[in-house]
Write a structure and sequence with these properties.
Blueprint: E1 2-7, E2 10-15, E3 18-23, H1 24-31, H2 40-47, H3 60-64
Antiparallel strand pairs: 1-2, 2-3
InterPro entries: DUF5800
Pfam family, one: DUF5800
Length: 65
């Protein structure tokens, strides 16, 4: 199971029991988008090779809004 916790500077991730941080700049570089326009599904795709995407994707800007 993967857990994502978003804040204005990046995302705290727990993936397969490993905790790490994805910084805002890294996410923007990987997606070629503004951090606030990136969706939670896109972040999951950075973390996992074949993530299980459930529900509608949500923009980081909406999650933090």
């Amino acid at each position: 199971m993967t857990t994502l916790a978003f804040d204005d500077d990046g995302v705290d991730v727990v993936y397969d029991g490993t905790e790490f941080r994805l910084e805002k700049a890294l996410i923007e570089e990987a997606t070629e988008k503004s951090y606030y326009d990136v969706t939670d599904h896109e972040v999951l795709q950075i973390v996992a090779d074949q993530p299980t995407l459930q529900g509608e994707p949500r923009r980081v800007g909406d999650i933090l809004g």
